[in-house]
Amino acid sequence: MATSLIPLSSSFLQPLKFKTLAKPRTPLNLSTTRKTITTCDSQNKNTEASSNPSSRNPNFQKRRKSSKYGTSRRSILKKSFLQEQVTFTARVSEDPQVAIIGGGMAGLVCALNLEARGVKSTVFDTGIHGLGGRLGTRFVEPQGLVFDHAAQFFTADDSRFIQYVDGWLEKGLVREWKGAVGELEVGGSFTQFPSSSPPKYIAVNGMRSLADSLLLESRLANVVRPCWISKLEPLNGMWHLSENGTPRGQFDVIVIAHNGKCANRLLSASGLPLVAKQMKKLDLSSIWALLAAFNDPLPTVNFEGAFVKGIESLSWMGNNSAKLGNGGTPHCWTFFSTAAYGKQNKVPQENIPTVTSEKVRAGMLQGVEIALGLPEGSLPKPVYTRLQLWGAALPKNTPAVPCIFDPQGRAGICGDWLLGSNLESAAISGEALGNHIADYLQNSEADPEEFAIGLHDWPSPLAGHDIGQFPGLTSVGEKQEAEAYQLL
Ligand SMILES: Cc1cc2nc3c(=O)[nH]c(=O)nc-3n(C[C@H](O)[C@H](O)[C@H](O)COP(=O)(O)OP(=O)(O)OC[C@H]3O[C@@H](n4cnc5c(N)ncnc54)[C@H](O)[C@@H]3O)c2cc1C
């Protein structure tokens, strides 16, 4: 397969105008490649440093040199808003390559949709053990413990997402969670969601197994992990990606499929002020996750998963062993705090002080005891615990656009937060951006500005559970209230 790269002129600065999206006019005719799974170490070292950045804009270069790369929120903000827009003016390559930075649900579905349209992509992800991001599973050996430590289950309401779920069901990647799931009031009163509730889906071998399976059959999508893309540079008409100074390839289009501090840093000096500004509007919650294994079943428990009401240190408890049908012992539980508790006890997630971890662990286990209505100090001692802070857990606001795309900078964003706070939103956003980029690449003759999307939308607050939204799943209380209202 030959890859022809057309030499491109240097970019120049110009303001953006926005029009509505054009319909695709010509089909893509792109050749195929075989899928390879590589880690960063085995990536080919290419020629990132050979181009002269000052050819873009000498003033821009000068300003970048004079300001030290800072990581404080203030300096990131300042950099984001001061940077000038990069504009690619020449045609994209004949065989375009898209870099997707983030291998969570959104990035993976984006790659799948690019593939369906004949476009090659490379997904970069930080995951050491696998893909998935917040679709994560922790395996603890040699004890054989399994914990879903972010997404617990999902519902499917949107017809596009239902299609994916049907496909995953067919392939045996997911199945319905038939165990008792509902709401738990302080004192141990559990109410199961009624049988009329929408099906609750789980991945058969833990949530991460779904993420790891999605691109296995792909021919046009490469996966590179673990890899933390730390720099994006627009040079000579291509995006050059690097990881701590090591080149990770050059691409026609980039996709930011992650959010939070990491994305803000990456975008702060990229030449994408509009994209950076949209990302900066995102507000995220923090959630503590406590993984705990017990030798014996927890007393009084008659459910597999429960949204906990009325306790600040606890918003969810789920029994992974029962859910995944692992049976036997130990019993692996995932406990999540509320977002309010996460905020109160927020610390740097990569460096949790011992005093905080001890306080939070004790607080959450006490929450479990109170939720189950157990006498003080009677909760069995876990044989294993692991505490984790999801510092950028769930979006608290959304612009409610399926994706963001800056055609001048050839850069897009997908992710749950653009539509909601769940796997369904992430998948739909990934699909939307994949198709949008394919439309853009297919319409090389069209005015690029027609492809600008989501660059000026304002976010509004998001409602939902502390651990996200579950489309179609109504709170037991709300449902009873609605039924009582109907009887009047
Ligand atoms: C505690 C918790 C519980 C949840 N429970 C549920 C639930 O039960 N049901 C549900 O539907 N949803 C749930 N969610 C929400 C759901 O997990 C997310 O909506 C969804 O997984 C988001 O997918 P995403 O692709 O947008 O982002 P992510 O999953 O966050 O993926 C982004 C990926 O990008 C990677 N990355 C970041 N920076 C870089 C970089 N510079 N270079 C390379 N890679 C990078 C990250 O490591 C990550 O793998 C929960 C979330 C949390 C935190």
From TrEMBL:
<feature type="compositionally biased region" description="Polar residues">
    <location>
        <begin position="29"/>
        <end position="60"/>
    </location>
</feature>
<dbReference type="InterPro" id="IPR036188">
    <property type="entry name" value="FAD/NAD-bd_sf"/>
</dbReference>
<feature type="region of interest" description="Disordered">
    <location>
        <begin position="29"/>
        <end position="72"/>
    </location>
</feature>
<dbReference type="Pfam" id="PF13450">
    <property type="entry name" value="NAD_binding_8"/>
</dbReference>
<protein>
    <recommendedName>
        <fullName>Amine oxidase domain-containing protein</fullName>
    </recommendedName>
</protein>
